[in-house]
Every structure is written in structure tokens, then in C-alpha cells.
Amino acid sequence: MIGILLLHINGLNALETKLVDFVNPMIGTANSITESALKFSENREGNVSGGLSGNDDSGQMSAWYVFASLVFYPVSPAVPEYIISGPLFEKITFELTTQKKIIIQAPETAEGKAYIQEIKWNGKPYSKVHLNHNELLQGGLIEFKMGETPNLNWGVFKKDSPYSLTP
């Protein structure tokens, strides 16, 4: 419902249609982000004039794609949380200014597996569909087990949802 309202208010702008994917985890459908990022990379990327269709937004589509392919997106700048997407890379390392690192591993992405089956954060199961900014600053290892089809049981419980003003 929120996603539909967002599309209605803003029209069918390319960025808004991508943002809807990051709203979906808030309403219990967590896998559409990965699908959109994959379709975007396959169909719209290019280092040529006009390579990103609808890219008249001062770089917002590019920013969306970078965030989506690197695992997370800051849906609300007022909340220190990032909505999780399936990584498009086997390994990602962020070197923080605190001398700590965030290492994200998803080896199955090389096999074309695009859907999150489970996540482990520092070896412990992690079922939330969001990452907390302050926890990320502590560094650590985030391991993604990816599959060929969506895991419809991952991130669907209320306790896994990101912050929301509405119940």
C-alpha cells in the first residue's frame, strides 16, 4: 500500500519505482530489491551517453544502484537504519574511519544466485531486513547465503521489520 501511494504521488519516475522496492521490506516482501538491482544492471547500465534511462535526477539513480548492489539503502535519512538488499558481489569490504572493517561475503552470487536465504552477522543468524548504523560502525562479518528463488520465510516477522511510525 505504501509503495502504491508513493508511485501515485510521484508518478512513474524511475527513482521512485526503485525506492518502492526498499519500502517493500517494511510491509513483508523483502526480495524485490535484489530483482530490481539485477534488472537494472542487466538492462540499463552503460558507460555511454544515455546509458541510464531516465537519469535526469542529478545522480540519484546511480546512487540507488550503488547502494542496492552493495547490500543496503538509507530509506529514511532520519533513522539510522539501512534496508538490506542482496549483494551483487561475492565480497565487499568497507574500511571504516575507526580502523574497523565491515566484510560482506556472498559467494553464491558468482553462481547467479540472487535471493537471500539467510544472513549471519559475526557468525550469528540475522533475520532482520535492516542494518543498524551504530552496529555497523563496530565492524564485523556479514555472510549471505544466496539461492535461486526467494526465501519467503526470511525477514517476514514483525521483529525483523525496520523502524516505522505506524504499527
Keywords for this structure?
5-stranded mixed beta sheet; GH92 mannosidase fold; alpha+beta; 167 residues; disordered N terminus
CATH topology: GH92 mannosidase fold
Largest sheet: 5 strands, mixed
List how many beta strands DSSP finds: 8
For CATH, the homologous superfamily is named as GH92 mannosidase domain
- Read across the widest sheet, the strand sequence of neighbours is 3-4-8-5-6
Count of structural domains: 1
Number of helices: 5
The Cα radius of gyration reads 16 Å
Low-confidence stretches: 1-13
Give the distance, in angstroms, between the N- and C-terminal Cα atoms.
14 Å
CATH architecture: 2-Layer Sandwich
* Protein structure class: alpha+beta
Mean pLDDT: 74
Order of helices and strands: HHHHEEEEEEEHE
Strand fraction: 15-25%
Shape: globular
Helical residues, percent: 25-40%
Fold blueprint:
Layout: H1 2-10, H2 14-23, H3 32-43, H4 60-69, E1 72-73, E2 81-84, E3 91-95, E4 101-105, E5 115-121, E6 124-126, E7 130-132, H5 133-136, E8 140-147
Parallel strand pairs: 4-8
Antiparallel strand pairs: 1-2, 2-7, 3-4, 5-6, 5-8
Outline the structure in words.
The protein is α+β, with helices and mostly antiparallel strands. The chain has a single domain (2-47, 58-155), classed as GH92 mannosidase fold (2-Layer Sandwich). 27% of the residues lie in helices and 22% in strands. The chain contains 5 helices and 8 strands; from the N terminus they run ααααβββββββαβ. The chain has helices at 2-10, 14-23, 32-43, 60-69, 133-136, and strands at 72-73, 81-84, 91-95, 101-105, 115-121, 124-126, 130-132, 140-147. The chain has a 5-stranded mixed β-sheet, with no helix packed on it. A hairpin with a 2-residue loop joins strand 5 and strand 6 (124-126). Helix 1 runs antiparallel to helix 2. Residues 1-13 have low confidence and may be disordered.
